[in-house]
Write a structure and sequence with these properties.
The relative contact order is 0.14. The chain has two domains: 1-58; 60-248, Lipocalin, CATH 2.40.128.110. The longest helix has 56 residues, at 3-58. The protein contains two helices and 13 strands, in the order H-E-E-E-E-E-H-E-E-E-E-E-E-E-E. By secondary structure, it is of the alpha+beta class. The protein is elongated. An eleven-stranded antiparallel sheet has the order 3-2-12-9-8-7-6-5-4-1-13, with no helix packed on it.
Length: 249
């Protein structure tokens, strides 16, 4: 074998070696790219799954009123006797976190559910026709048809439920006779499961009480003159109690 043949053979071997090296680099690069692509895809899928789980966990529960789901009673005094009026109607809704009301005892965000309550003025009755007429006249019912309450926040009373009931001071805006005032009232809230339409849903039971003065809302305490009884004066202060059980749809 002459020198030229040996040189040609060496060049061929060197070329083949370089070609194999290049091919290996190409395969390695393709494999690396596939691994990177697969890793990104898995990361995106995992991120999407975690995002969906977080969104599902953060989704609030909506509770709505229904016929027979509430009652409210107000009590006052007069120069002849104490008086009482009642309504079997409480309208409105609650939008709260899934762990509510327990979560609201420790979580500041959960202690600010969206709560709106509506009580039609005309539904409050004393079952004394004349008294009901005087009440609606002083409340200017044709003009101010509803009493409304919008919750601002719940201030926990304790860190754990007592007998299944969570205690709070409810702070919010009460609108009566077109006048809005901030009030604070003690309430207890408990959650249970009830079956409706073949499925189990959550239901709240909210019980509370309040005290207010009619004059704070621009309502003049009635002082009717009734034949045979003379002038009757009515106390300015009113005490109220309520029970409301909105339910998840």
């Amino acid at each position: 074998m002459n020198d030229e043949t040996i040189f040609a053979s060496g060049c061929s071997a060197t070329f083949e070696s370089k070609q194999r090296t290049m091919n290996m680099k190409t395969v390695t690069r393709q494999t690396f790219n596939r691994c990177i692509s697969r890793t990104w895809f898995q990361a995106l899928c995992l991120g999407g799954l975690l995002g969906c789980l977080a969104q599902a966990a953060a989704e609030p529960i909506h509770y709505f009123t229904r016929p027979g789901a509430g009652k409210v009673k107000i009590e006052g005094t007069s120069s002849i006797h104490a008086w009482t009026m009642e309504s079997p109607v409480i309208g409105g809704s609650v939008e709260a976190a899934d762990g509510f009301p327990e979560a609201a005892l420790k979580d500041e965000a959960a202690a600010k559910p969206k709560v709106k309550v509506i009580i039609p003025v005309r539904t409050l009755k004393s079952y004394n026709k004349r008294m009901d007429e005087v009440y609606q006249e002083h409340m200017e019912e044709p003009k101010f048809k509803n009493m409304e309450f919008a919750l601002t926040e719940l201030k926990p009373k304790g860190e754990a439920p007592q007998d299944g009931k969570c205690g709070f001071d409810a702070v919010g805006k009460l609108t009566v006779h077109g006048v809005t005032q901030t009030i604070t009232m003690p309430v207890t809230i408990e959650k249970s499961e009830v079956e409706t339409a073949g499925k189990k849903v959550s239901q709240l039971k909210i019980v509370g009480e309040f005290t207010l003065k009619m004059s704070d809302y621009g309502v003049q305490p009635p002082n009717p003159n009734i034949a045979g009884m003379g002038q009757i004066t009515t106390g300015d202060e009113i005490k109220g109690t309520f029970e409301w059980s909105p339910r998840q749809k």
